[in-house]
Specification:
alpha+beta, 3-stranded antiparallel sheet, two-stranded antiparallel sheet
């Protein structure tokens, strides 16, 4: 499936949107509903899944803080620029990771595409390795008595 990962550019919420999000976020946090019911303008009432309720609460919290939020489906295929933005690295660095076999990718014509799931896997393994190295350095420091 080839879903556009980022259909619209991510934008910061307006002050009005942040204020509305803060009000809604507080109400959801205070009440902690087991299910979220939404009433549409035509009077139709929908019950949202619990996972959607958690996601909406998180979305509102981020918007209330003035943060932009993007939702990326786990199966999405990202461009190299979108993938680089997610990892917070430069596009050339991402390309070197792809070409070095660190992150899987496929070609669509002549363009590289990266599955979001593969980015999530890479990021998690990189963070795990970073933690292991830091723990190893801390242990060496304690053995040597350097005071760090």
């Amino acid at each position: 499936m080839n879903t556009p990962a980022l259909e619209k550019p991510t934008t910061l919420p307006s002050k009005e949107d942040s204020a509305l999000a803060q009000q809604a976020s507080r109400a959801l946090a205070t009440n902690q509903p087991s299910e979220l019911k939404v009433r549409l303008d035509d009077g139709q009432e929908l019950v949202l899944p619990k996972s959607a309720t958690r996601l909406i609460t998180r979305l509102l919290t981020e918007m209330a803080q003035g943060n932009a939020v993007t939702i990326i489906p786990i199966h999405a295929n990202l461009t190299t620029q979108e993938a680089a933005d997610y990892l917070n690295v430069s596009r050339p660095h991402l390309v070197s990771l792809l070409e070095g076999g660190k992150i899987r990718f496929h070609l669509t014509g002549t363009h590289r595409r990266v599955r979001f799931q593969d980015l999530v896997t890479f990021k998690a393994s990189s963070e795990k390795r970073r933690r292991e190295i830091m723990e190893e350095l801390a242990a060496q420091s304690q053995q040597q008595g350097t005071g760090y």
